[in-house]
Design goal:
The protein is mainly β. The chain has one domain. The protein is 0% helix and 41% strand. The protein has no helices and nine strands. β1 and β2 form a beta hairpin.
């Protein structure tokens, strides 16, 4: 991983591993995707930009669901539920 981290949420969609939340370097937060076929890490935009540890993460079809966890700015667990659409499908009609 590009950043040392623990207490993060991990889920896989279409053979891409998504990592959100976790404790790591103070003051920084990045969500990451890992592409095992290319052995490559890439950050992606996620609605939470502050340090956040212990989120629950699940997958429904092409959506990554995160819920709960503790934000660095709060002393109690959050009830927030976020949905990130990880995969988009675009259909282009065939015209004859």
């Amino acid at each position: 991983m590009p950043e040392a981290r623990f207490a993060m949420g991990i889920a896989s969609i279409a053979d891409i591993i998504h990592i959100v939340g976790g404790d790591g370097q103070a003051g920084t937060f990045h969500a990451f995707e890992y592409f095992p076929q290319r052995d490559e890490w890439q950050s992606f935009e996620f609605p939470v930009t502050e340090l956040w540890h212990g989120p629950g993460v699940g997958v429904v079809e092409t959506n990554l669901h995160t819920f709960g966890g503790v934000r660095a700015s709060a002393s109690a667990p959050t009830r927030q539920h976020l949905v990130y659409q990880a995969i988009y499908t675009i259909f282009i009609p065939a015209i004859k």
